[in-house]
Amino acid sequence: MSQRLQFNLSDGLAEIVLDDGKVNALSEAMLEELLAAIDEAAAADAALLISGRPGCFSAGYDRKLIAAGGPACDAMRAAGDRLTLALLDYPAPLVIAASGHAMAKAAFMLLLADYRVGTTGDWQVALNEVAIGMTMPQAAMAIARDRVAPQWLSRCALQAQGLTPEQSVQAGFFDELHASEHVLLEARSHVQRLAALPRSAYRETRALLNAPLRAAVMPWLQA
């Protein structure tokens, strides 16, 4: 077991739980471990569920590294770009369960999953790049434009509005919400449901579905 995440693979199903005991900041180290776990699940052609610890899915990129800039920040962003491709290209069903805040890069992870289960409660989803003084990256804007409901795009990408769980469903970040104690149970049910679909047809159709977005982000990725 890592200090940053837990990984389990059994009977064609894989689970990754992000849990660094804090806010699950997506540092380069966290991203590399997450990418390694995704690669192992993909090699096994396993339906995948990614979740976070109760109260926080992830705060997104490590803000300290962003503020410092330099090679460490560049390495983190490059790993984040590889994560974008890993999620877009995942060869089997991909479900994300968020039991708390999902900010910036973590919110983009939600947009790249096949099915998203969230938690009711007092927490937010936000594309908060503008709020922290960042111009929205080109690849991130392409994802937002493709996956966020049009009537919410300006409020999310430009105005950096923090969304309640209910607003997050309307905007397209989640498919459904449940009380915190039921989130993982419901998410696992959806993973099993999708895993039961004919895999070759699912894999090929998923690739076709994601192909236009993949083409749109590729010129802007460091991966």
Main pleated-sheet profile: 6 strands, mixed
* Beta content: 15-25%
Please count the beta strands (DSSP E, at least 2 residues each): 9
Contiguous uncertain segments of 5+ residues: none
> What is the strand arrangement across the widest sheet?
1-2-3-5-7-9
CATH topology call: 2-enoyl-CoA Hydratase, Chain A, domain 1
Question: What's the gist of this structure?
Answer:
The chain is α/β, with parallel strands linked by helices and 223 residues long. Helices cover 48% and strands 18% of the residues.
Blueprint (SSEs and pairs):
Layout: E1 5-10, E2 13-18, H1 28-43, E3 47-52, E4 55-58, H2 63-68, H3 70-88, E5 94-98, E6 100-103, H4 105-112, E7 115-119, E8 125-126, H5 138-147, H6 150-158, H7 165-171, E9 176-178, H8 183-195, H9 199-217
Helix pairs in contact: 1-3, 3-4
Structure characterization notes:
- With 223 residues, the chain is α/β, with parallel strands linked by helices.
- The chain is 48% helix and 18% strand.
- The chain has a single domain, classed as 2-enoyl-CoA Hydratase, Chain A, domain 1 (Alpha-Beta Complex).
- Strand 1 and strand 2 form a beta hairpin.
- The longest helix has 19 residues.
Descriptive key words:
single chain, 223 residues, alpha/beta, 2-enoyl-CoA Hydratase, Chain A, domain 1, 6-stranded mixed β-sheet, 3-stranded parallel β-sheet, 48% helix, globular
